[in-house]
Design a protein that fits this description.
The structure is a single chain. This protein is mostly helical and about 80 residues long. It has 2 helices and no strands. Helix 1 runs antiparallel to helix 2. The radius of gyration is 16 Å and the shape is elongated.
Length: about 80
């Protein structure tokens, strides 16, 4: 996992959860099940969507040149490691 997707997961989780809650409210579901279900779906979809957006950003950047594959070093990058 790269550091950009860690930061983007906070944003994408809030966006997905907010959109689902607004959709549930606009359909007339004003209960805790709708809010809780939206939060669970938003939490579950936050990292995959952030990772996808991170890959899109990095493939379109002409200055980006990774020197290793994404999963060579493990799931959590070291603090001073280069971006994958």
């Amino acid at each position: 996992m790269d550091r950009l997707s860690i930061i983007l997961s906070l944003l994408s989780g809030a966006l997905i959860t907010g959109a689902l809650v607004i959709a549930a409210f606009s359909l007339g579901y004003y209960n805790w099940w709708a809010i809780g279900g939206s939060a669970i779906i938003g939490f579950a979809m936050a990292w995959p969507s952030a990772y996808y957006v991170s890959r899109l950003i990095k493939t379109r950047d002409p200055e980006w040149s990774p020197d290793q594959k994404p999963m060579d070093k493990g799931p959590i990058p070291k603090r001073n490691a280069k971006e994958i």
